[in-house]
Amino acid sequence: VRRTLRMEDEMKYAFQTDLNKIDIFYIKQDIFLRVNENYSYLLKYLWFENKYQTLVENYYEFEKTISETYNALKDKTEAKIDIGQEYIVTINRRILNFTSSARNYTDDIDKNVSELFPDPKIHELIKKYKSTIYDNNYSYQLLELLRNIYQHKGFLVRGITIIKPLFGDLDEMPIFANIKVKDIINNANYANKIKDKKMMNSNSNGYLNIIYHIRSYIQSLDEIHQKIRKMQENKYNIAINVLNKILDDIYILKGFKTEVAFIELDDNNEAINWVLVNRNNILKFQKYITRTLEINKHVLKNKCRPFRNFDGLNSENNDIQLNMI
To answer: Which band of pLDDT confidence, cut at 50, 70 and 90, is reported for residue 324?
Structure first.
């Protein structure tokens, strides 16, 4: 074993740049502890960011499918019923994926963000912020209910409506993805989940347009996520700077590709604890933390109606239904 950087009072900690060689370099305990604390923190935060990125990507997939559906059916809709029904199934599958990833993400806020925020007061502040957004956003409440229905009872989008303006161009979404309002009102959890029932009750014989509500929901979740990022900004910047400084010093001294092992040793020079730092994870975190929700990605038009209605539209409206009980 090659021993360098040895100090009289520091024989319990080391780093190793080539894991295929028995070649260690002794370091102070403080370096090991700082690496362990900051890298563990970044990995936990990276895991949280991964869940958010999965949620956003599922939203993009949903909007992309909506756009593809419209483009495939906007001409001669009546001759493309089979194709339309296939798209309805795909839309339902996208909603299932989106709501499942949303559940995964929101559960992480409720249960695991305390690891990022050891101070219970801050954790409670985040939960309160999330609860306020939930209370103020009807679509948030609705999607929480729809998620349970999709997971336990199946698909809800019964059909789609293609809107064709009789003249000119339409300044809003030319497609509805329809969910029967009674399918929601009749659910056993409706009374508990939906705080303001006026909107649903006034449209009880119609259909809601899930496109509108998914957009509203993802924007609320993004608002919560940006709040958490802002509260963590100082801490994660410190962690990145600490790790990069230590890795830069090691690179100058010894050089390495992407990984450095930091090791705690016993009296026999055997490893009893170690932290394998991969610089790519730090770079990935820096990449993720700067990503923002592109709400208009794959979106046909920004303006969107929460329910299936044609008030003020000079249009021909074509429906394709999926056979559902």
So the answer is: low
- pLDDT, residue 127, reads 87
Counting beta carbons within 10 angstroms of the beta carbon of residue 305, is it exposed (0 to 12), middle (13 to 18) or buried (19 or more)? middle
Place of tokens 């970044």: 42
Helix (H, G, I), strand (E, B) or coil at 260: strand
Q: Is 269 helix (H, G, I), strand (E, B) or coil?
A: coil
Sheet containing strand 315-321, edge to edge, reads 207-209, 175-180, 157-165, 315-321
Residue 6 has pLDDT above 60, yes or no: no
d(CA 26, CA 3): 7
CA gap 284, 72 in Å, rounded: 37
* For the chain, percent of residues with pLDDT exceeding 90: 72
The predicted structure's pLDDT at residue 42: 95
pTM for this entry: 0.90
Half-sphere exposure of 31 (CA within 13 A, CB side): 23
What is the rounded distance in angstroms from the CA atom of residue 98 to the CA atom of residue 45?
21
Strand ranges for the chain from DSSP E: 2-4, 13-16, 23-26, 157-165, 175-180, 207-209, 259-265, 271-278, 315-321
CB 319 within 8 A of CB 78: no
- 194-197 long-range contacts, Cβ below 8 Å, gap at least 24? 194/138, 194/141, 194/142, 194/145, 195/135, 195/138, 195/141, 196/138
C-alpha to C-alpha distance for 212 and 300, rounded to whole angstroms: 12
Q: What integer pLDDT is reported at residue 2 of this predicted model?
A: 40
310/105 Cα distance (integer angstroms):
35
pLDDT at 52: 96
- β partners of residue 176: 161
